[in-house]
Specification:
Helices cover 40% and strands 17% of the residues. The chain is an alpha/beta fold and 140 residues long. The radius of gyration is 15 Å and the shape is globular.
């Protein structure tokens, strides 16, 4: 019998997004949105695990929570951008606070975009497509 792929299976060539987020509900929402768009999703639940996975997997994009256990989002970003092999990975920072000092510090460390929580699907996907360079992807 021929090996027939599942109708919802995505090709292995789709771009990888690493989600570094400790809130399970947000991880679930982000994963659902991204998988529906054809992205391959990897998750990490704290900053330390996220940085380890980034080093091994070199994702096309990192969606990073600001407040994380084990390694704060700003520390994560600083360490990521200091590593030559990882410095070019775009980072989208999710933050529960839109405070100017928080956003300013993150921008200074090299994040590419930020999105306050709660966020809308369309807004998130528009930013993701822009950062990854997927103009052909839909964001409906």
């Amino acid at each position: 019998m021929a090996n027939v792929p599942h109708p919802l299976a995505r090709p292995a060539t789709h771009k990888q997004v690493l989600i570094v987020e400790d809130e399970p509900d947000i991880v679930e929402i982000l994963t659902s949105y991204l998988v529906d768009e054809g992205y391959r999703v990897i998750t990490a639940h704290d900053g330390q695990e996220g940085l380890q996975k980034a080093r091994v997997l070199h994702p096309h994009l990192i969606i990073l929570d600001f407040m994380l256990p084990k390694k704060h989002g700003l520390t994560f970003c600083k360490e990521l951008k200091e590593e030559a092999a990882l410095a070019q990975i775009p980072v989208l920072l999710l933050t529960g606070t839109g405070r100017a000092d928080t956003v300013g510090a993150a921008l200074h460390l090299g994040i590419n975009a930020y999105l306050p929580k709660p966020f809308e699907r369309h807004t998130l996907l528009t930013i993701v497509h822009r950062l990854i360079g997927d103009a052909s992807s839909s964001s409906t």
